[in-house]
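Appendix B. One record, verbatim.
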Amino acid sequence: MDLELIIGAPDPGFFTEHGIKKGTALRFIRDIPKWFALQGNVMPNEIAGAFSDDVLE
């Protein structure tokens, strides 16, 4: 699983179509940037800018 690709084009539908509940899928997508930062990494601007809170609505 490529986390950068998920953030670049977040699609919770991919996960829900494979049996993951919607809330879990949304939280997973939302938490990737947080996890990345906790690892001591700086997220590249092109990835961070692609992430949108619209996915969560």
